[in-house]
Amino acid sequence: MKRSDSRIADRLKYTLVTLCNRIRYGSTWKKPFYMLRLLKNLFLRICFNKRPLRGIDFAVDFACDLKCAHCFNRDILTPGNSRKMGIDDYARVFKEAEKEGILNFCFQGGEFLILKNWQDILRLLDSRKFSISVTTNGTHLDEEVAKKLKELGVNTVTVSIDSGIAAEHDEFRGQEGSHAKALKAIENSLKQGFKVVLNATITPASMRSEGFLKLLEYAAQKKTLLNTIFAAPSGNWSGKEEIIMRDEDISEYKAICKRYPNVVRDMDSLYLGRGCPAANESIYITPYGDVFACAYIHITLGNIFTEPLHQIRKRGRKYFKYQSKCPISENRDFIEQYNRLVKGAKALPLPYEAHNEITAWDS
Which pTM does this prediction carry? Predict the structure, then answer.
């Protein structure tokens, strides 16, 4: 076979595998009402250029049993704000999100599964109408919990795992034995028939490590998606230039994706094409009701205690316009301006007006 023919074959194979993964993880055939909602959203997006909400990541609580190197939760705790979202607040936001066209509700923390009320929150949802996912570090996802998640309509479980080498993962997560627990959580989830996603935060150094190579092979063997999160200079990593992916790193990353088509980013998960989904298709809500366009950009779009979700989300679209580069992990001008704001702040999150202080949205 000629080299040109081989390249064409490789491209076709890559396109086919990525398309199959998109269909596999984006569709939930056992939930026909969800599928109708998905088709409706695609119709609105394609035919009328509407932007129906695709997903919300709820940080239900910042409590966690690990001490991860890159954690940002303690930075956005609001000591002066004693009000946290309760069951009634979640019920109201769920209804507002449904009007916005939402498809996926994702619950995380901190660590979602150590919370006393996690089952009560999941029971609020009609699991026939939505895709429901849980993101976990795996430390509490035993067989009994996996079964309960299944009963409550969860269809996707995302387990955070950053290396195929136990010692590397444990050091990064701040707890010995956390790698073994994550692997067990993955097995328990696969046994229950969940769609399983592995979450890995990568830096230029870790991407080239033996541990990441082993993780790539493990994900391919288990036939799961490996969702790679480009390291952001936020939280504990604020101001750390060395963790930012450069152009040459991104080129190497793209080569990895061609070899392992199950490797994805959130930039690949739009209704159409690729780009930053912030505000247009996804949002992040803290335990205190603050709405962020992105979990790593700690500037609030508004708060669910004082405004309806529709109004908050609409406001965010003024700045977030499907950027081709992730602002907080790839756009160095944006990162510089954002970090300057954060460094001079008395408390986080920054108010909405701070968006106006950033000019490098499309660099």
Answer: 0.94
